[in-house]
Amino acid sequence: MEQFSVGEDLFVTISVVGLIVLFSVALAHAYHNYAERRNTYESFTTALDIAGQLKNDVLAKTGGFATSGLISATPPTGLENYFNSLRGQGIELRIEVRRLDSELVWSYGGEPNFLTQYFSPPCSVSFPVAINQSPSSRPLGELLVKVWGA
Amino acid sequence: MDERGVGYVADMLVFALIISFASALLVKASPVDMRTIDDRYAANFADSTLLALQNATANELGGLRYELGFSDFTLNLPILSGSAGRDLGHKTLMQLLVEDALCNLNIELAGVDINLIKLSQDMDAKVQALLKGALDRLSGGLFEYRLIARTKPIDISPVAKVWFETKVESSSENRQRTFSKTITMAMPISWQGLLSRCQEVYHINLSSFGLEPNVTVEITLELWSR
Predict the structure, then answer these.
(1) Residue range A12-33: average pLDDT?
(2) pLDDT at A102 over 80
(3) ipTM of this model?
(4) b/e code A91-118 from CB counts within 10 Å (16+ = b)
(5) Domain annotation covers residue A117
(6) What confidence tens digit (pLDDT) does each residue in B153-166 have?
(7) Minimal Cβ distance to A12: which of B8, B20, B54
(8) Disulfide-capable partner of A148 in A122, B88, B123, B163 (CB 3.0 to 4.6 Å)?
(9) Average pLDDT estimate for B55-72
(10) A132 to chain B: which residues are within 8 Å by CB?
């Protein structure tokens, strides 16, 4: 039976455990960065697609047909259905339409919860649009779309 | 240290090597080149900007009113009293750009620009200022831009041609990674209609030229990140 050697075996054990912990943390951190990049890209792609649908179709319908880039000056009917269909896919959304001087024209959807979205922060994109106030008054504005996971 | 200790150390070193390799792979491995995100956003932004300019009216950007006249001379005759002024605030920014092209066509004779008297010279400057103001505010400091509107040159004789080109830009520099989007808009008059008016004024027979039925203006927006 081998004799237990406190000096050498304890040192080796501590070193091994310390290095395992150290490298495991490094691996976890590297994976976290990787996942964050992937998540950012996926959220951004989703936000771009949703913003495209909104400005070319959902928010651009007037009298039965849509004019791409011309956004309704009030939240259109049927927006709730669009929100529900996205919610069914696990996507939460907030829309803001602002004038160029940042004055809010209208918004729809709740704000994301900071704590629950801590590890998966919302992704937002904004695009220039024209706001359809009346046939002779269509100011430039900004469509802001904020997307996060449910 | 006995043999068992040496074995532990060897195992530990192999383990560290494997972990380092895995970490390095994860750091290098990216689901996508992050520049792709910038590129997609810039391309979508260019598309949205052109759509917004096609729909937004000039009234909300201070309007557009100009006086018919040329150079520093305006038709301030009492008899005209305001009738020389045109208020175009109800038109969209792109409609104004197309109308600007129609009213300010250039004529080149044997490679030399002929400076004709253009009663709408004032409009050209005002449309450019209006578009620059709009694009400065839309780009929001994210992008540099260049908006170019041009018609195809039409050869009306072996030595003469008619064309239009105007440019609004935030910076004259050129970048390699530039996104451009081009739309084509029709002028509210055909070439035949336009040239028949020229014939009336300049008494030249232009009917023999095989021209496209519609006058079109190509509008290109180039964007690049700051």
Answers:
(1) 81
(2) yes
(3) 0.78
(4) bbbbbbbbebeeeebeebbeebeeeeee
(5) yes
(6) 877 777 778 788 88
(7) B8
(8) A122
(9) 75
(10) 55
Maximum CA extent, chain B = 114
Nearest to B8 among A16, A30, A41 (CB): A16
Its domain, for residue A29, covers 6-149
Q: Is residue A61, in this structure, part of any structural domain at all?
A: yes
CA–CA dist A50, B190 (Å, integer) = 39
Say how far apart CA A74 and CA B26 lie, in whole Å: 46
Cβ–Cβ under 8 Å, residues B109 and B163: no
Tell me how far the alpha carbon of residue A148 is from its chain's centroid. 4
- Name the H helices within chain B: 3-28, 34-55, 93-103, 121-139, 191-202
**Res. A137 pLDDT band, cuts 50 70 90:** confident
Q: How confident is the model at residue B225 (pLDDT cuts 50, 70, 90)?
A: confident
Structure tokens at B208: 């023999």
Quick one: tokens of B119? Answer: 């009663």
Query: With contact defined as beta carbons under 8 Å apart, do B126 and B89 qualify?
Result: no
**pTM (two decimals):** 0.76
A43-55, pLDDT tens digit by residue? 888 999 999 999 9
Task: Compute the half-sphere exposure of residue A50: CA atoms within 13 Å on the CB side of its CA.
Answer: 28
Domain count, chain A: 1
Chain A residues with CB inside 8 Å of B56's CB? Answer: 130, 138-140
| Nearest residue on chain A to B15, alpha-carbon basis | A20
Residue A88 lies in a domain: yes
